[in-house]
Amino acid sequence: METDELVDAVTRLVGNGVQRYECCEDGHGAGHVCLALSQELDLLELIEGISNRYGASRNLAMCSYTDPTVDATTGRPVLTPFDADVIDMRAWAHADHWIGAGTVRVGDDIRHVVLVAERDVPVVEELPGDATWVERVVAVTGWAGEARTVDWDAVEERLGTRLPSDYKQLSEIFVNGAFDGFLSVYGPGCRVPGEDFVEHAELLTAYSSREGRGPWEPHDIYPAPGGLLQWGSSEQADEFYWLTEGDDPDRWPVLASQDIPDTWTRIDGTAAEFIFRMLTERSHPHSMARYYDTHWFESYEE
Fold first, then answer.
1. Phi and psi (nearest 5°) for 164?
2. Which candidate among 16, 108, 112, 131 keeps its CA 20 to 30 Å from the CA of 277?
3. What is the pTM of this model?
4. Which of 61, 56, 57 is CA-nearest to residue 80?
5. How wide is the angle at C-alpha 85 spanned by C-alphas 83 and 90, nearest 5°?
6. Share of residues in the chain with pLDDT > 70 (%)
């Protein structure tokens, strides 16, 4: 199979709803399936093709060294079939599946491999009762990406307002990507076009100054008193704002809209609570729990 055909085959496996995989490879157990592929295939091209569809990969092994911190929540299922014979391995999380691509040692030979493995639901119940909403989002997605540092003093000075503390944590941990391939959180310095938090806020301010309230009726755009400040959007043109009412940004409610006039939904809670409930509660107005039992964060970082 060519690269595009292999990526399509991966997508069919991920989307076929199989509850239990059985691999046909000798010595391999259940819980995954390996795809047959030519050893002449350009593995880097294949990895790029999978990344274009499923976001950036996690690097689990390189030059026969496997990251000792990898566990079931961060990609261990794609390593298990090959054990100590793994040379290089990348992994992608998508709903209740892991996708793996890399090279392994088979006797005296080195082979390219691509597999799809089952992904367990990240455990949230073990979190302490006083866990923050950000910690709950990390737990339910199983995210283990490297956090970044943001100069929040500079960001807030440029905007002219303090920002909610949980949002700052979210945008440091979840960088340039989307939850369940659906909801993106805008962050300062985000490289995804249109999702730099500060630039987007300034763009909406300039637009509303020229055109008025427009699509935000009956609300104004920040920096108008109590105006809307956007922190995210969805693949379905939903938009997520804070209603900047009051002096305490940690108490700003979330105001969500769909791509339909006058479809505002106010939810009293933080952005992190909104995301956690969106991922886990079927009754949430923007619920992803109706579609997925297992949730993930898809990073667009290189």
1. -60, 140
2. 16
3. 0.74
4. 61
5. 80
6. 95
Distance CA 93, CA 115 (A): 12
In angstroms, the Cα distances linking 56 to 104, 177, 299 are: 21, 9, 5
CA distance 302 to 286: 29
CB 141 within 8 A of CB 297: yes
- Main-chain phi, psi angles of 247, to 5 degrees: -90, -10
**Cβ–Cβ under 8 Å, residues 261 and 124:** no
How far is residue 193's CA from residue 287's CA, in Å, rounded to a whole number? 25
CA 105 – CA 115 distance, rounded (Å): 15
CA distance 188 to 294: 28
Q: How is residue 28 written in tokens?
A: 């391999």
Tens of pLDDT, residue by residue over 120-164, are 766 676 778 788 999 999 999 988 888 899 999 999 999 999 999
Please give the single-letter amino acid code of residue 136. R
Cα 228 from Cα 218, distance rounded (Å): 11
Contacts of residues 77-82 at CB distance under 8 Å and 24 or more positions apart, as own/partner, are 77/31, 77/32, 77/117, 77/118, 77/119, 78/32, 78/115, 78/117, 80/29, 80/31, 80/32, 80/117, 81/23, 81/25, 81/28, 81/29, 81/32, 81/34, 81/115, 81/117, 82/113
